[in-house]
Design goal:
This protein has 13 helices and 14 strands. The protein is α/β, with parallel strands linked by helices. It folds into two domains: 107 residues, Aspartate Aminotransferase, domain 1; 237 residues, Aspartate Aminotransferase, domain 2 (3-Layer(aba) Sandwich).
Length: 367
């Protein structure tokens, strides 16, 4: 087995040697140089989201993407608020679980995993249920790889005067998002996705005037988004509690490499070429995609199990791992599927060699 393998997942994902290398140096959370890096990251994130520093802020939060989601949901919805959750996969349902645990009033509008969130149905629910104050949904639902209609959904939410919360965990940095132009109130992502850093913190792009209303709302001490924002602003890059310094430095390096690649637009092209190459070669090897092309994101692709007598996902997973590739199991209860990511430090030639390994597995009928 290879010492290092290529992660073909929606995160954590394979990073460049230079991102790994900068983690060899230790940092002090109180040091001005380190805090300056934090401030640069916050500014660069707003630039990536096409949001002005006049109207928006970015806040970094310890923990995985789910920590960022919980910090946002638990802070920005007041006691008298009601959240509408739009779900067509497990990550939309996770927002529901967070709301239930935190005691937040919510309503879920659920769609099939192979169905985009329907804007007209969302509109109808908001017209009928005037108690709704906030709406949350996942942009790229990596349960299947489906891409929900972000701009249209936010437009509908704002037309009703509601607060839009977007889980852009697996899309921010890989797909162009006009945070300010579209009126997104809160956008959440994490360090180990399309920006190609390593796991350790999440980040939230927020409208300043909305976040300013959230003092004393938080249902958690450590996941208080408002207080985290206040400390980061007032102490110029200081985190309230110990920050993942090595991860932060690696993320800054990853941001520089994203810029050097040509920004989000060029990274999107690479991801799309990866995904299209993957699908073409997988189909030629006899695999079928779960989603139609029109619903598919370039982030991760779900494939149906092949009709092979001795096929098991576990045997193919181990076979591929021995060849240096790690793929993802499925998350659907009504279909036998597996998933392959196309993001990270991954290129077309990697997809070609991966598919050659899969074809070898298929040719030998899983034996």
């Amino acid at each position: 087995m290879r010492e290092h393998y290529l992660l073909l997942t929606p995160g954590p994902l394979s990073t460049t040697p230079s991102v790994k290398a900068v983690m060899l140096k230790d940092w002090c959370t109180w040091d001005d140089t380190y805090k300056h890096i934090v401030q640069l990251i916050r500014s660069k994130l707003l630039h990536l989201g096409r949001a002005s520093e006049t109207h928006y802020t970015s806040v970094l939060m310890q923990g995985s993407g789910t920590f960022g989601i919980e910090a946002t949901i638990g802070t920005v919805i007041p006691q008298a608020g009601k959240l509408l959750i739009l779900a067509n996969g497990v990550y939309g349902k996770r927002i529901e679980e967070i709301s239930r645990v935190l005691g937040i009033s919510y309503r879920t509008l659920e769609f099939a995993p192979n169905q985009m969130v329907d804007v007209e149905q969302v509109n109808a629910v908001m017209e009928q249920d005037t108690a709704i104050t906030h709406v949350a949904f996942v942009h790229c639902e990596t349960t299947t790889g489906i891409l929900n209609p972000l701009e249209k959904l936010v437009h509908t939410i704002k037309r009703h005067g509601k607060i839009a919360i977007v889980d852009a965990m697996s899309s921010f940095g890989g797909l162009a998002i006009e945070v300010e132009k579209w009126g997104i109130d809160y956008l959440i992502s994490s360090s180990n996705k399309c920006i190609q850093g390593v796991p350790g913190f999440s980040f939230i792009l927020s409208k300043k005037d909305e976040l300013a209303k959230c003092k004393d709302n938080a249902r958690s001490l450590s996941l208080d988004l408002y207080d985290q924002w206040q400390v980061m602003d007032q102490e110029e890059g200081k985190w309230r509690f110990t920050s993942p310094t090595h991860v932060v430095r690696a993320f800054y390096q990853a941001l520089l490499e994203l810029e050097a690649e040509g920004g989000v637009e060029r990274r999107y092209v690479r991801y799309l070429e990866n995904q299209q190459t993957l699908v073409r070669l997988m189909e030629s090897a006899g695999f079928k995609t779960y989603l139609p092309e029109a619903l598919q994101s370039p982030i991760i692709t779900t494939f149906m199990y092949p009709d092979l007598e001795h096929f098991t996902f576990e045997s193919m997973y181990l076979f591929l791992k021995e060849q240096g590739y790690v793929i993802y199991p499925g998350k659907l209860s009504d279909a036998q599927v597996f998933r392959i990511g196309s993001i990270g430090d991954v290129h077309v030639e990697d997809m070609v060699s991966l598919c050659a390994a899969i074809l070898s597995y298929v040719t030998n009928n899983g034996e």
